[in-house]
From TrEMBL:
The keyword Coiled coil does not apply. This is Mevalonate kinase. It comes from Callorhinchus milii. Residues 115-209 form the GHMP kinase N-terminal domain. GO terms for molecular function: ATP binding; metal ion binding; mevalonate kinase activity. PROSITE patterns: GHMP_KINASES_ATP. Homodimer. It is an enzyme of class 2 (transferase). It catalyses: (R)-mevalonate + ATP = (R)-5-phosphomevalonate + ADP + H(+). PANTHER family: MEVALONATE KINASE (PTHR43290:SF2). Residues 293-357 form the GHMP kinase C-terminal domain. GO terms for biological process: cholesterol biosynthetic process; isopentenyl diphosphate biosynthetic process, mevalonate pathway.
Length: 402
């Protein structure tokens, strides 16, 4: 068991195309964001386990002895991650006082932590005393993969703390990543965490959180996208709350109810992702960029209509699309929809005045709006001095008031 304080981080993501369809085995294209979730873990000897989640105003602490039931409830092999059974989830719910069917932010975060902590500790038959602090730059529950970044950080930190994977040493002012097989293990455990939060996740979000960059995800296969141009994307948060778990379940119900109506729409979304990939490659190759951007814009419009048809749109997102269309810009929801965030594609030559006017219009509607940098690196371990000064100060302040 390592005795150091560790700081890990993982990026959020933007799904360009394929959300929801990817849950049903279709292709999705996703890129990591420069917004990250940070987790600080310190092992201690006070016989307690504490988890502090300031983004969701939650700080819980248990006597390790009270958590002993985890070792009898969860019989997991750390090298072979498996999903929590219904019986295990029921026991975790009972312990944490979470009624069945509760999908609020706090309940899902606690269930995810308890399962990963119990399952990753189960092989060593020990429940280490620790303090964990998780803080994120990502809005929670807005379609930017905060749940996956949370699960990836927890998996990486817990696996490193109990020495199931190596504890690489970052250089002064540096960050370091794990070996490929260790990243695979982190990703698999994070997927189990996502299952507790999403119900039936595709795995695309935790893959981006683990590996970063741009990737194509298809039926569990992760393929890095090497031929994509530097995309300019305006990200807008409508601030309308929603739950991925509820929206994913809604699409499944619709598909079961109308398989021959919804099935073809999911196939069409799959085709949109593939066409988008080809068009991005054409831009990199320098083929008629103007025309290619026009294709990307049309794909965004078609997909936004499809997402409305499968029931994951929202009037706040319709207003976002209309507001940007007034400036000849094209937008779609990103992530689970139902509110949350939308993306607007900017062309390389979209003028600053158009961007500013669009942002102003969206701000006036009460939305947050900013131009993003995409392509943040995957899950990483930080030396404290490598953190940006504002992040470092915030973690210190939050640690001091624990
Ligand atoms: N920083 C965080 N602290 C605690 N819990 C978090 C944090 N970020 C995400 N979560 C968990 O993830 C859930 C949000 O996941 P989800 O509905 O999939 O939205 P998204 O992944 O788009 O942000 C929250 O309800 C919470 O349980
Ligand atoms: C709707 C979905 O495709 C993406 C969900 O993303 P988010 O949780 O809204 O960031 C679900 C999934 O792929 O697991
Ligand atoms: Mg999520």
């Amino acid at each position: 068991m390592t005795d150091k304080t560790l700081i890990v981080s993982a990026p959020g993501k933007v799904i360009l195309h394929g959300e929801h369809a990817v849950v049903h085995g279709k292709v999705a294209l996703a890129v990591s964001l420069n917004l990250r979730t940070y987790l600080q873990i310190g092992l201690c000897s006070n016989g307690r386990v504490q988890i502090n989640l300031p983004n969701i105003d939650t700080c819980l602490s248990w006597e390790s002895a009270a958590l002993q039931f985890l070792l009898t409830t969860i019989d997991a092999d750390v090298l072979n991650p498996k999903a929590a059974s219904q019986e295990q989830v029921d026991k975790l719910r009972q312990f944490a006082g979470i009624p069945d069917g509760c999908v609020d932010t706090r309940s899902l975060a606690i269930l995810c932590f308890l399962y990963l902590y119990g399952a990753i500790s189960a092989s060593s038959r020990q429940l280490p005393s620790m303090e964990i602090l998780v803080w994120s730059e990502l809005p929670t529950g807005a379609g930017l993969g905060s749940s996956a970044a949370y699960s990836v950080c927890l998996a990486a930190a817990l696996l490193t703390a109990n020495e199931s994977i190596a504890c690489p040493v970052p250089e002064e002012n540096g960050t370091v990543r794990w070996a490929e097989d260790e990243l695979e293990l982190i990703n698999k455990w994070a997927f189990q965490g996502e299952k507790l939060i999403h119900g039936n996740p595709s795995g695309v979000d935790n893959a981006v959180g683990t590996w970063g960059g741009a990737l194509k995800y298809h039926a569990g296969k992760i393929m890095p996208l090497n031929r994509i141009p530097t995309l300019r994307i305006l990200l807008t948060n409508t601030k309308v709350p929603r739950s991925t778990k509820t929206l994913v379940a809604g699409v499944k119900d619709k598909l079961n109810k109308f398989p021959s109506i919804i099935g073809p729409i999911l196939n069409s979304i799959d085709a949109i992702s593939c066409e988008c990939e080809r068009t991005l490659a054409a831009i990199v190759a320098g083929d008629s960029t103007e025309e290619s951007y026009a294709v990307l814009e049309e794909l965004i419009d078609i997909n936004q209509h499809h997402l409305n048809v499968i029931g994951v749109g929202h009037s706040s997102l319709d207003r976002l699309c209309q507001a940007t269309a007034l400036h000849s810009l094209h937008s779609k929801l990103t992530g689970a929809g139902g509110g949350g965030c939308g993306i607007t594609l900017l062309r390389p030559d979209t003028s600053p005045s158009v961007v500013e006017a669009s942002k102003r219009a969206l701000n006036d509607m009460g939305y947050d709006c900013w131009e993003t940098n995409i392509g943040g690196h995957g899950v990483s371990l930080h030396s404290p001095s490598s953190l940006q000064r504002d992040v470092s100060q915030l973690l210190t302040r939050l640690t001091d008031c624990q």
